[in-house]
């Protein structure tokens, strides 16, 4: 179905979802992961053809999606002993969809340029479920002609692609979005805690806020679905949020742009890792705020049953 021989390197949450999306769309591809267990699990569940190493993917494919979830695994997959650099040839297109630091992607692009590799970026905005359902947004950068060449495939993978300019810009923009949402969650959680401690109906206050503060926009969905219910299970790993916040704070320091509010939220996420009942979810941060305030929001089981029985409702954050 594609003019390319496609490979996917990295099979964590988003990488696995990219592979599943390609499979659902009948795009033949091979997969690999430097974590052998990840590779075995994905292949056992999907039946997709595996490659032993990223080097092998480089030999086999001319369009490669790199979807690693950390800077360390990203570097190893690209320039490590069994990395792509040892297998790719001139004309190969690599699409960086990883969670690595934006500067690392630029560095890797420079190191592979001498081999004639075309390096593009397509930062993924959305959850693994969004990717599987084709609802994600891609923030793209790199050579216009190469992006146009793979546009039919990107259009099949995601709901939209937004062009942002030079390499690294998409990842930084995504990290800025994550950071803005994290600050909003912290702010609205704090408002809910004050309302609760003051004896107000927190849910009623939340419903009224768009009218009380119309210029502030709508509260994040997770305030109603995760905080006021006491669920604290958004499905987003706290590691990924912390990684994006770190990226933005570092960029702010380099740019000489003070970021005092984001730095405070960064500290809250760091402390939340050690909160009682922490489960590694991004909602551990508002859980930590609630525990510090001595406030417990309780899940309304009857409401949850009604939601489950009502078509078209969603618990997603």
Topology:
Layout (H helix, E strand, L loop, with lengths): L5 E4 L3 H12 L4 E4 L3 H11 L2 E2 L3 H7 L2 E4 L4 H9 L13 E4 L5 H12 L4 E8 L2 H5 L4 E5 L2 H14 L2 E6 L3 H29 L4 H11 L8 H7 L10 H18 L4 H13 L11 H10 L7 H9 L8
Parallel strand pairs: 1-2, 1-4, 2-3, 4-5, 5-6, 7-8
Antiparallel strand pairs: 6-7
Helix pairs in contact: 8-9, 8-11, 8-13, 11-12, 12-13
Annotation keywords:
2 domains, N-(1-d-carboxylethyl)-l-norvaline Dehydrogenase, domain 2, Rossmann fold, alpha/beta, 317 residues, disordered C terminus
What does this structure look like?
Helix 8 packs across helix 11, helix 11 runs antiparallel to helix 12 (260-272) and helix 12 (260-272) crosses helix 13 (284-293). The protein starts with 5 loop residues before the first strand and ends in an 8-residue tail after the last helix. The chain is built from 14 helices and 8 strands. The chain folds into 2 domains: 6-166, Rossmann fold, CATH 3.40.50; 172-309, Orthogonal Bundle (N-(1-d-carboxylethyl)-l-norvaline Dehydrogenase, domain 2). It has 317 residues and is an alpha/beta fold. The model is unreliable at 301-317 (pLDDT under 50). 53% of the residues lie in helices and 12% in strands.
Q: Which parts are unreliable, with pLDDT below 50 for 5 consecutive residues or more?
A: 301-317
Number of helical regions: 14
Rg measurement, Å: 21 Å
Q: What letter string, H or E per element, gives the SSE order?
A: EHEHEHEHEHEHEHEHHHHHHH
Specify the biggest β-sheet.
8 strands, mixed
- Helix/strand structural class: alpha/beta
Strand order of the largest sheet: 3-2-1-4-5-6-7-8
Determine the fraction of residues in helical runs and give it as a percent range.
Answer: 40-55%
Chain-averaged pLDDT: 91
CATH architecture of the largest domain: 3-Layer(aba) Sandwich
Number of strand elements: 8
Strand portion, in percent?
5-15%
């Amino acid at each position: 179905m594609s003019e390319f021989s496609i490979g996917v390197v990295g099979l964590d949450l988003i990488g696995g979802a990219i592979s599943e999306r390609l499979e659902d769309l009948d795009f033949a591809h091979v997969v690999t992961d430097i974590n052998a267990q990840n590779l075995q699990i994905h292949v056992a569940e999907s039946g997709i053809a595996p490659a032993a190493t990223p080097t092998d993917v480089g030999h086999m494919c001319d369009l490669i999606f790199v979807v690693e979830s950390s800077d360390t695994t990203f570097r190893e997959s690209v320039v490590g002993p069994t990395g792509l650099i040892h297998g790719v040839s001139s004309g190969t297109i690599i699409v960086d969809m990883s969670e690595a630091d934006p500067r690392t992607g630029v560095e890797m692009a420079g190191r592979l340029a001498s081999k004639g590799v075309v390096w593009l970026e397509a930062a993924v905005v959305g959850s693994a479920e969004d990717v599987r359902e084709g609802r994600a947004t891609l923030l793209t950068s790199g050579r216009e002609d190469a992006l146009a060449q793979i546009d039919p495939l990107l259009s099949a993978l995601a709901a939209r692609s937004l062009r942002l300019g030079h390499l690294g810009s998409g990842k930084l923009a995504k990290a800025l979005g994550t950071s803005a949402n994290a600050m909003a969650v912290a702010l609205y959680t704090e408002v809910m805690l004050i309302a609760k401690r003051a004896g107000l109906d927190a849910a009623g206050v939340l419903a009224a806020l768009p009218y009380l503060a119309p210029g502030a926009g709508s509260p994040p969905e997770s305030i109603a679905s995760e905080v006021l219910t006491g669920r604290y299970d958004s499905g987003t790993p706290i590691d990924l949020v912390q990684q994006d916040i770190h990226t933005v704070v570092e960029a702010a320091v380099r740019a000489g742009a003070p970021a005092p509010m984001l730095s405070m939220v960064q500290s809250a996420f760091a402390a939340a890792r050690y909160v009682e009942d922490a489960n590694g979810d991004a909602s551990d941060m508002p859980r930590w705020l609630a525990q510090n305030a001595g406030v417990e929001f309780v899940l309304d089981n009857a409401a949850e049953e009604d939601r489950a029985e009502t078509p078209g409702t969603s618990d997603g954050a």
